[in-house]
Amino acid sequence: MTEQRSKYWNPWLETLDPERRLAIELKNFRQMFQYAKDHSVFYQRRYQDVFPEDIRSLEAVRQLPLLDKEELRKAQEGQEPFPYGEMLGVDLTEVSHFRQTSGTTGRPVYVPESYESWQWRIEIWCHILWMAGFRETDRVFIPFGYNVYVAFWEGHYAAEKLGCEVVPGGALDTRGRISKIREVRATALLNTPTYGLHLAEEAGKEGVDPKTLGIERMLCAGEPLPPATRQRLEQVWGAEVYDHIGGTEPCAWAAMCGERRGLHLMEPFFLVEILDMETMTREVGPGELGVAVITPLGRRSFPLIRFNTKDVVRRGNDDCPCGRTSRMIAGVEGRTDDLRKIRGVLFTPVTVEEIVRREFPEIVEYEIWVERKDVMDEITLKVEPKEEMGLEAFQGFKRRISERLKTKTNLRFKIEPVPPGGLPRYTLKSKRFKDLRKG
Amino acid sequence: MKKLTDTGAGANPAEMKAIIDQLENLLLNLKEKGQGMPVVEKNVRAMLSFVRVLQFGISDLAEDGS
After folding, report:
1. A195: how many CB neighbours lie within 10 A of its CB?
2. Do A297 and A349 lie in a common domain?
3. Which of A270, A357, A413, B18 is deepest in the core (most CB within 10 A)?
4. Which of residues 36-65 of B touch A (CB under 8 A)?
5. Into how many domains does chain A fold?
6. CB distance A116 to B42 below 8 Å
7. In which domain, by residue range, is A431 found?
């Protein structure tokens, strides 16, 4: 008997007619809204005078206030039950997974998952892995100790549920991990983009071409993955590289399919709103930038109603040849937290990453520093070039990259060389952007 | 054997929903019978979590007229 497999994890969900999908999402939104009011002190207070039957359309949804991370912190700090406070949506005895945010923008938020809610998250990740071509024949290597950070745990459990063989790669150094990839003949990796590049760099130093390691696919997590970085990873590993976007609080809410020409919203697991950055009230159209506002529709341990992710994304065209009918985003452009005014110009670090990765393969690592000198902002790109680059070559490189950065950002960068190994290497979230201005 | 196409056209959501409902009822019944026995309670809790995933991905669509 020949087994016939679907190219979709759940063909019904993934090919839903958009109108019907929206109806399902609104129905689930109302259910989740009522559940949150019934089970979380925070929502009982917040929505005392709002009732699910009032929420019959997207316009009605948009009348509800946005929820941001600072409110989650306040609802937890000093509130019972410790440590989740008033956000908790289940009895504390039902919580089986402790996760927390990375704390990049302030005090970490603690995120509780019941066994049931955890399975709901894992199911979404099964969709993501399946879309990226992960199958039972894959041996998936995860080169991290996952600690309390959620994405690689989700990837681990979902790969296991899907039937892959999972090889955890914590407690090894980078060389040990390269050697383990070869030893077990891993076919797939889950890692941050930065670490994917670092693994390749270290393999190169040992005289190993990463392409010979047999990795066929890589799913990235933890950081933005601009197209140039994704293509660079594909080139150095000789593998298909996939992106997804999510967060500890809302789960993973968009991911790439085999076409790799944008990310599918994980509908109807979430009600996703992509709102204009100025007023946060208007749904943006294809090609426009907007901020993602997410409501997970089936996760009860930590209900979020209209969570402002602060992720800035570009809306895509919803016509993917893969046949999935979900709405799409073209890519992630950064975070509103990272948008800065420098000398009156709006700047996002992702623009620099895009230029560095696409046009300057001679850069091994970089950092962006913004400082205030007297009354002027000064922006510096610290670059660690490949060891073989000589002084003369560096001068030419410096001129070229300055011109490109000026054209793309409208800012004049100071370019500062750093000796080999002088900049930090990151395994989880990289911190390449440093705004050192006071106030 | 029925063939499942890429759109799931060979499968019947209503039939599947009925089976998922039966599973839930069986598990709740088992939970009641094994009350106080961790081996029953904890395994049933885990299985009900998977049932809920199926309700979200299959039963909800059947209810909605798929």
Report:
1. 22
2. no
3. A270
4. 45-46, 48-50, 52-53, 56-58, 60-61, 64
5. 2
6. no
7. 340-435
Give me the helices (H) in A138-270, please.
Answer: 150-162, 174-184, 193-205, 227-237
Q: What is the DSSP letter of A339?
A: -
E strand or H helix that includes residue A241: strand A240-242
In angstroms, rounded to a whole number, what is the distance separating the alpha carbons of residues A190 and A322? 23
List the single residue in A4, A13, A269 with the smallest CB-CB distance to B4: A4
This model's pTM is above 0.95: no
Chosen for mutation from A3, A12, A96 (greatest number of chain B CBs closer than 10 Å) is A12
The CATH number covering residue A355 comes to: 3.30.300.30
- A100-147 per-position pLDDT tens digit: 987 776 789 999 999 999 999 999 999 999 999 999 999 999 998 888
Last residue of a domain, one of A299, A314, A333: A333
Residue A250 preceded by cis peptide, ω within 30? no
Q: Is residue A421 located within the same domain as residue A292?
A: no
Q: Which of A276, A306, A333 is the last residue of a domain?
A: A333
Residues 6+ apart with CB under 8 A from A364: A201, A384, A385, A386, A420
CA distance B42 to chain A (A): 10
Whether residues B61 and A12 touch (CB distance < 8 A) is answered with yes
Give yes or no: residues A323 and A426 share one domain: no
The amino acid at residue A391 is: L
Composition of chain B by helix, strand, coil, percent to 5: 70, 0, 30
A9: closest chain B residue by CA? B6
Gap from B4 CA to chain A (nearest CA, Å): 7
A298–B5 C-beta distance less than 8 A: no
Reported ipTM exceeds the 0.90 cut: yes
- Encode pLDDT of A411-435 as tens digits: 999 999 999 889 988 776 778 889 8
| Strand bridging mode A363-373 / A433-435 | parallel
All residues of chain A having their beta carbon less than 8 Å from the beta carbon of residue B27 are none
